[in-house]
Design brief:
It is a single chain. By secondary structure, the protein is mainly beta. The chain contains two helices and ten strands; from the N terminus they run E-H-E-H-E-E-E-E-E-E-E-E. Strands 3-2-1-9-10 form a five-stranded mixed sheet, with helices on one face. Helix 2 links the parallel strand 2 and strand 3. The protein is globular and about 40 Å long.
């Protein structure tokens, strides 16, 4: 089964537990606040990476990351940006199955009007009492229609 790895808000810290949790994914999305170019290089050792710029990614080369990206993966159109509130389009009208974002450091998976809004949580330095998490996304079929299925993974840190 194909799985998409989701990570966000590393802020320059890529824990070995995060790498282990994403091992075996066929593609990885980083939803911003990368914090260091070495983070993306380490993730690329696992699978191809698509990353967007977060609000802390102000210096080159991270400042050159796009503010948003759309991918086609396993029959799904997925849109990604760092801050959900900056979404300037209608995901349903664009045919997106999911919108992946970060910024809040809170893991979230909720469906609104048939679109999955997904925050993998923060995989970097612990913030407040929030868990340190990543997520994996797979696809189930409902007839001919692909349905995204998410699993958050809390890292033992």
């Amino acid at each position: 089964m194909l799985e998409l790895g989701l990570i966000s808000d590393t802020h320059g810290l890529l824990r070995p537990e995060a790498l282990a949790a994403l091992a075996g994914c066929d593609r990885i999305l980083h939803a911003g606040d990368v914090g260091g170019p070495d983070i993306l290089e380490l993730l690329r050792r696992i699978a191809p990476v698509t990353a967007v710029r977060g609000n802390v990614d102000m210096d080159p080369p991270l400042s050159r990351l796009p503010p948003s990206a759309t991918i086609e993966w396993n029959g799904l159109r997925i849109h990604m940006l760092h801050i959900r509130e900056e979404l300037k389009l209608d995901p349903l009208a664009r045919g997106f199955a999911a919108v992946v974002f970060g910024h809040t450091h809170r893991p979230l998976a909720e469906v609104k009007q048939g679109v999955l809004y997904l925050n993998p949580g923060s995989a970097g330095p612990r913030r407040f009492d929030l868990p340190v998490t990543v997520a994996r996304l797979s696809v189930e079929r409902s007839g001919e229609r692909p349905v995204p299925v998410v699993r958050h993974i809390e890292l033992a840190v």
